[in-house]
Amino acid sequence: MIEPDRFSGSRPIALVTGCARRVGRATSLELAKRGCDIVGTYNTGMDEADSLGAEVESLGGAFVAARVTLDDPANAGRWAAILCETLPRLDVLIHNASVYEPTPLDAVTAADAQRIYNVNAVSPLLISQACAGKLKDSQLPIGGAIVAMSDIHAIGRPRRTHIAYAMSKSALTEMVRTLAVDLAPAVRVNAVAPGVVAFPESGYESDEPMQARYLSRVPLDRAGTVEEAAGAIAWLALEASYTTGQILRVDGGRWIG
Q1: pTM score above 0.85
Q2: pLDDT computed for residue 207 by the predictor
């Protein structure tokens, strides 16, 4: 757990799940650039988390990361509760960690669906529950914030063979809207819904012809970047003082393409 003297409490503290890679890493760095100390979670990326820590500290921020397996929601919630007892403050919670994998209808199992749902929806709910009190006490002028990573393909643009993922992200999106009511006015709760800001590194979606077909339907004619997603997350977390319960699409226009 967190060493009591690691964070002074003089700077805002952000908790970023799935901090070590891709959007989570870019978000951690963007928040650090904006003056936040970072608590991160990872699953398998311990080396990447260590190198992220060095980058955050080079920006003047404090950093610590812990391995938290979100497929066990009860354990994730307990971890977050103990964390909040230790931290001097918590101002921002970013639900970035997720499972993204195909689940063809003729092959999906109950275990597959439950595991994806646990990581993508139930653990974020229980972590939010554990952190709510600390976030309500945020010293930021615009109060505490929760930002979740949704997906345009789970809010009305479904893709084939990803039914369990889409269902879990749809649940996460409704969690955002409901928490925005439950935690108001002290905590703002929003989501970023990307199209593609980073193609998967393996599997059929790493195939260049497939990527070209996808991008042919994107009006801005390119994939986004993890930095663009991180900028949107940071804006919602630290600047969007009159915005809550919203799903911000960062998709290059794919929604209308």
Answers
A1: yes
A2: 79
